[in-house]
Amino acid sequence: MNGRDAMARFLMEQHHLLLACHVSPDGDTLGSALALAEGLRGMGKEAVVMSTDRIPEPYDFLPGQEKVTDTVPEGFERKAAVVLLDCNRPDRAGLTGRTFARSAVIDHHETGSDFGDVTWVESSYAATALMVLELLKALGVALTPAMATNLYTGLAVDTGTFRYANTTPLALRAAAALVEAGANAGSVANNLYRNWTPNKFDLLCLNLSTMEVADGVGVSAISQEMFEKTGTTALDTESFVNFPLLIKGIGVSILMREVQKDTWKVSLRSKGRVNVARVAQEFGGGGHENAAGCTLNGGREEIRERLTEAVKARTAAKT
User: Fold this and answer.
1) To 10 degrees, the CA torsion angle through 139, 50, 292, 109?
2) Between 31 and which of 95, 153, 197, 317 could a Cys-Cys bridge form, CB atoms 3.0 to 4.6 Å apart?
3) Beta bridge partners of 265
C-alpha cells in the first residue's frame, strides 16, 4: 500500500482529528489543513484546524480561516488523532509535550523525522497542497470552490506562483484542475501579493537597507527595533527573503529575524545549485533544497559569518 492510500485508510478510521499547521503558518500549511478539514467534515468527521500562531494578514481571504483555533480543544488529547500538515515534528506545530491517541504526518519537506503512526512524505511534490488534493481524491471527496481556493493558494505560495524550479507538469495540471473546481487565480494573486499595508512596505525598505552581498550570497536582517519603528510584527515578514534573489548574481538569500536578544530565526532561499536544506541542517533546522530555515543564538555579525561560510562551503562542494 502506498503512502497516500495508507493515509486515506488512517483518516477513514478516525472520527476526531486535529489538523495542525506549522508555526509561522504560510499558505501551504493553512490551505492544506483547511481543505482537508472541509473534506473530512463532509465525511461526517469532527475535524479541527489548529495554528498556535496567528494567521498572517495576507491569508485572511482563505475560506474557513475564521474557524482556526490556537489551542487544542478540550478532550482532544485523549480521543483525537493529530495530523501534522507541511511539517513533521510536534515542536514545528507548537505541540511540544502534547500526546494524542494517534498521529500522522503529511509533508513534502526534504528533512524528515520519526514522528507519526502513519506518515506520507513526498519531497518531490511542490507543495503539501498537492498531496492533499490527491488524498481527497483517494477519499472520494468532491472538491468545492472553497477547497479549491485553499489548495490553489498553497500550491501558488510554494511554487512562487509557478516561477520556482519545483513547478512541475504535475503542479501545473493540478493548478488547472483547481481553477476548474472554482479557484480564482487572479483573486488569489491579488490577495497574496497586492495587499500590503504601508507599514509592511516600510519594514521591507528597512530590511533591504541592511543587505550585504558577497560571493553570490545576500544577507539581510530585521531587528526588534525595526518592528517597533514600523509598527509591524514577524507575521509581516513572509516573502521578504525572496527579494534579494531578484538581483542578478545573487544565488542564495539569507534573512535573519531577531526573535529576542541574541536569538535569530533564519530563512534561507536559493535559486542555484546550493541545497539550503543541508545548510539549515548544520544548525539544527531543515526544509527544502531551495527553501529552508533554522534558529541560531549569538550576535548578528557572528551569525551572519557562520551562515555565509556554511553556504560558501556548500557552493564550493556544489551541494
Assistant:
1) -20
2) 153
3) 257, 295
> How far apart are the C-alpha atoms of 79 and 82, rounded to whole Å?
10
Three-state secondary-structure class, residue 136: helix
* Amino acid, single-letter form, for residue 120: W
Residues near 292 by Cβ (< 8 Å), separated by ≥ 6? 111, 267, 268, 276, 277, 279, 280, 281, 285, 286
In this predicted structure, what is the pLDDT of residue 319?
Answer: 61
DSSP state for residue 50 in the 8-state scheme: E
Q: How far apart are CA 60 and CA 38, in angstroms?
A: 17
pTM for this entry? 0.89
Of 46, 29, 27, 47, nearest to 37 (Cα)? 47
Residue range 270-295, pLDDT digits in tens: 997 899 999 999 999 988 888 899 99
Amino acid 1: pLDDT: 67
Burial class (CB within 10 angstroms; exposed 0-12, middle 13-18, buried 19+) of 2: exposed
Q: What confidence score (pLDDT) does residue 183 get?
A: 98
CA-closest candidate to residue 88, choices 76, 73, 105: 105
Nearest-angstrom CA–CA distance, 95 and 256: 24
The residue count of the chain comes to: 319
Low-confidence ranges of the chain (pLDDT < 50): none
The cell for 102 is: 494517534
